[in-house]
Each structure stands twice: as structure tokens, then as C-alpha cells.
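Box S1 | Example of a co-folding query
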Amino acid sequence: MGLLEGKKALVMGVGNKRSIAWGIATAFQREGADLAFNWPNERLKDNVLELVATLPNHESIPVGPCDVSKQDEIDKFFAEMDRKWGRLDILVHSIAFAAIEDLKSVMSLTYNAVDRVVPSYNSMAMAKAVLEAETRYLAADLGPHNVRVNAISAGPLKTLAGSAVRGISQARDLMVEKAPLRRNITQDEVGNVAVFLASEWSRAVTGATIFADNGFNIIGVTE
Ligand SMILES: NC(=O)c1ccc[n+]([C@@H]2O[C@H](COP(=O)([O-])OP(=O)(O)OC[C@H]3O[C@@H](n4cnc5c(N)ncnc54)[C@H](O)[C@@H]3O)[C@@H](O)[C@H]2O)c1
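Box S1 (continued) | Returned holo structure for nicotinamide-adenine-dinucleotide
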């Protein structure tokens, strides 16, 4: 039996098969979760639908438009999710919009440009700093409702979003050279951390930012 058998997980942020969200979705699927997805715009709609079509029982998987910058789309999407599922156990990404009494685990993706200086990350570094602080505050607010809120700080990956960060290739070379485990991470490895955060095995973990970066964040000076 999988770690997430029967759990209802909404995974927001799949853009293509290299998306971290897709690594998380396939790991959740392996562990028996029921999945739902969104697409943010018409350009990415077909990508999402094609990927969903590769999953078992894909006909019954809820998938629809939700651009999180548009409140009306968020409202419609979650009303539709509520109609189809009536509850949500796991929300991947930081769009804590579902009825909190149903949620059990919320998680978002962050990057180590919060604690270290990554010049090309620009204002995203500030956004991620807020996200990590929000993770702690939300964890404190929602803990009494038995909802856990955590963040995964992933190492550099050449996804659509990652490729937009200048210096991502050098960051990946640095991982191979200097990270304690001397290699880059994969989307699947982030997916496995997400399975842990979504499962009962992490029931004592909330408000945390967990690094999935082969230990790169601990390095100060190397030989
Ligand atoms: N790639 C990396 O190196 C890396 C490292 C650490 C953290 N992250 C974080 O991981 C998360 C996922 O990024 P990724 O690397 O998988 O890239 P990605 O481009 O595959 O995924 C980003 C997704 O954001 C979604 N999106 C963008 N604007 C949206 C909107 N207005 N409404 C709804 N959805 C919208 C798109 O669907 C896209 O699929 C991001 O938060 C990113 O900052 C990435």
C-alpha cells in the first residue's frame, strides 16, 4: 500500500514534464494519491492535458484553468474542485485557498537565494523570503486546525522557470563540483521529499523549509 493511498492532492504548477510539480505528481501517483491539476494559460493547457493523459485513470482526474493572478479563475477552479472532490488533503504550491478544515498538508517550492546571494535571482529572492516566512506564520495559524505547512528548497533544475534564471548552468556545475553529494538533484528526488511532507511520516513537521539540494546549502568554504 502506498504512503498516500486515497489522499486527494491538488498539484498546481505543472508546465511540462521537467516541472518540479510533475516530479511531485508522479511520486504522489506512485504512492496511491488521487491527483488534480491546473493549467495557468492557453499556451500551457495542451502540455498539461498531454501529461495528465499519461496517468492511469486519467479520465477521472480533475484538471482545469487556474491563473493564480486572476481571482475569478481561482474562485471558479476551487468551486469546481469542491464539486468534484468535496475535500482536499494535500495542496502543492502556496495557494492556500481551499477550505482549511479539509486540508492536511500544504507545501510550496523555494530556493536557497533566500539565505545566500544569487544576483540574477533579483526580486524572486525577496518573494521566496516572504514565502518562507509565510510558511512559518501559516504553520502557526493553521496548526491548531491540524494543517501542516512546509516548504521545499530545491537545488537548481533546468525547468521552464529555472532556465529563466541567468547562471543556472553554472549553478548546476557548482553542485557537481561542491555539493556534499557531488551531483545535481532530479525532479523525482524533490517528488520524494514532497511524498514525505504529504504523508503521515512527517506528521510532526510543520513550518519547516527542507532542503532537497544534495547538501549544497551547508557549504561555506571548500577545498
Ligand atoms: N528550477 C529550479 O532551479 C528551482 C529551484 C528551487 C525552487 N524552484 C521553484 O519551484 C517552483 C516550480 O518551478 P519549476 O522549476 O518546476 O518551473 P516550471 O516552469 O516547470 O513551473 C512553474 C509553473 O508556474 C506556473 N505558473 C506561472 N504563473 C502562473 C500563474 N499566474 N497561475 C498559475 N500558475 C502559474 C506554470 O504553470 C509553470 O508550470 C517555482 O516556485 C520555482 O521558483 C525552482
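The pocket of nicotinamide-adenine-dinucleotide is lined by residues 13-15, 19-21, 40, 44, 67-69, 109-111, 154, 156-157, 159-162 (CB under 6 Å). The chain has one domain: 8-214.
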